[in-house]
Predict the 3D structure of the following.
Amino acid sequence: MALHPSPSEPVFKRLRIAILLLILFVVAFSQLLAGWRSRDWNDPLYVGIWFVNGDGGATTASYLDSLDADAFEPVERFFTEQGDAYGLELDMPFRIWIAGDLESAPPAPPEDGGWFDVLTWSLRMRWFVTRLHFSYHGPTPDITLFAIYRESGHGGTLDRSTALRKGMIVFANLYAIREMHGSNQMVVAHEMLHTLGAGDKYDLSTGLPLVPHGLADPARTPLYPQPQAELMAGRIALGPAEAATPHSLSQVTIGPATAYEIGWTETPP
């Protein structure tokens, strides 16, 4: 005997689809507004950081417990000082707070995936963040940052961090090591600017800063050695084929090209 679907099933199916489309429309519209607001710099952008124990270890858990509310104050101060240098009429461009801990990590970015895999992950991440914001009792952040801490990575290095401009989401892989706190702050600052449209300014094959936009002071004479690292280049150019890794944001600056990309200046470099 053949079973026939209930006449109400198509109605419920269409209703579920309509509700889902409505939710997606609201999410997309709110993200569009956030994107516009992120470029006008009339008000600070709020950054909510969720901690994740990436390796599940006791050492990492202990490290996370040691991070207080001021753990990322140097990042706030860095952007304030850099904004002042570009004449930004805003006391504090970013306000950062620790929103809480996550029991499990958000969907990980695909490894060597094609465009469809990346698109699928992007949609999953944005849905994950939307549900997280609905369940969070604090202010809705403009930038949602997942700080994934591990005591060490594969071969002593961590996977690359990732940022999504659509949705303004950061997936930051960080070290649960006190000596790496300054480096972690640079990663956080670097990825934050990716969500605002700033591009990487280093050679992907060599890791060396690109000339001229990857240099802290592209007008310097002589050009080398550079005094600092450009934030989106990540390294201090000592010569055409030589660079050093900065240890903290005190050795980093935002160059003219990056300032233009994030809307701090109106004139292209």
Remarks:
- Residues 43-194 form one domain.
- The radius of gyration is 21 Å.
- The chain has a mean pLDDT of 87.
